[in-house]
Amino acid sequence: xxxxxxxxxxxxxxxxxxxxxxxxxxxxxxxxxxxxxxxxxxxxxxxxxxxxxxxxxxxxxxxxxxxxxxxxxxxxxxxxxxxxxxxxxxxxxxxxxxxxxxxxxxxxxxxxxxxxxxxxxxxxxxxxxxxxxxxxxxxxxxxxxxxx
Length: 148
Hints:
The protein contains 5 helices and 4 strands; from the N terminus they run E-E-H-H-H-E-E-H-H. It is of the alpha+beta class. It has a domain at 49-137: His-Me finger endonuclease fold, CATH 3.40.1800.10. The longest helix is centred in the N-terminal third of the chain and has 14 residues, at 36-49. The termini are far apart.
């Protein structure tokens, strides 16, 4: 029989494994009852059966926002990106991004990946965005030749 201090039987796969195959218990002394591979399978199975779990977890952790608040905001925006108006169902990603002011943390709206990325790349600088618009207006009629 294996030494109780070095081995444990997983509560899910019932295999006697080394203690190193178990994660530490977060609220008690010792290790969890299920081994690491079985624990990963349980979490993956849960996420598969509950697709909004990950979104809800991230919203709460990063923005202190609930899923209900996210979907209320999405409904107020007509299910569209607040900037380019692409529909939620047409977004290349499965959800719209939560746009927030990095200096205050205030949530401004829900944006598609592209619009959110543009704001992030210019660091929300209005002058840079205005310069981009000016650039497009002044250079949209030029035709670049191949140099031949």
